[in-house]
Amino acid sequence: MTRMRITTEKPGARPLPPVYMATSLGGATIPNPMLTASGCAAAGRELDQFFDVTDLGAVVTKSIMLKPRSGRATPRMAETASGMLNSIGLQGPGLDAFVDTDLAWLKRRGARAVVSIAGSSVEEFTKLAQRLRNTDGIAGVEVNISCPNVENRGLVFACDPLAASAVISAVRRSTAPGIPVIAKLSPDVTDIVEVARAVVDAGADGLSMINTSLGLVIDTQTMRPTLAGVTGGLSGPAIRPLAVRCVWQVHAALPTVPIVGMGGIRTGLDALEFILAGASAIAVGTVIFNDPGAPIRVLHELQRELGDRGFDRLSDAIGYAHRPHGVPAEPTADESAGDDEAAPGDALAGREHKEHRG
After folding, report:
1. Is 147 an active-site residue?
2. Which domains, from first to last, does the chain contain?
3. What are 121-153's pLDDT values in tens digits?
4. pTM for the complete prediction?
């Protein structure tokens, strides 16, 4: 395939500042913080015609289930004034076909693959993790616990700390040691910190925040819900302040737990908000639909924004907005110096947050 490379740098643009962009993803170091948000770029193959997907920190795949799934009835997408609703229903080819085609392609391509898994029961999540345990080419497992729990009358796992921790505990036990397990959290809860604590105590090495928020659009011509499934997940700029708030709260409570921040990121400044709030990595999703080169563009913009603010390393900016009053807006030489012998992101490594597990 001939790649239609997208140029993210404008003619005559100044060189990117020498900011060290490596970060920690649940204890594993990745070269930069840019990930794709699950569900918005399949397994990355389509994006590879626009830019080299190996330049990303990681490709997070669309959530995969054990068996093939046709998804919800159409229409299942609707635009909103500041984002979109989707009610896809986890359509996919099933795990075996995914491993043989999409995951195999990512491995051949040399991309770092974080496989997102979804299930309707703890048993199904366990089987998914066990199957992936013996599969090469996986940099991490994202556990999409924002799925209906058929064992408990349709309750979403991520809305119940006990149900969420049961899934994460099972996946962690079934996943190969050294492979990060990242829990994807829903914003549609009373206390997201409570859920975050529960999944970290259960063995999560990191958190993805946030999944879409439940929304509804009504067609005023037909005077019925636009989506066949009635409700759908709201994504895009509309949820960014909500997502930043969730990241802020969880980082304040669990400052050593790596967070992948997502929700309405369109620019480097948007990404910087998440980093300052406490995210150690970011993911872009909805923006890809109208700008397939967004992941690399946003990454470069973020690097410029960090350099413009005096940061030499991305890791120095993580959670910087939480600093006490009176600390300068720009990092001082002492703040940005760091320990040259320390591995990047060590302060966020998964092994250090085990203290939260009791």
Report:
1. yes
2. 23-67+91-214+236-333 (3.20.20.70)
3. 999 999 999 999 999 999 999 999 987 666 665
4. 0.89
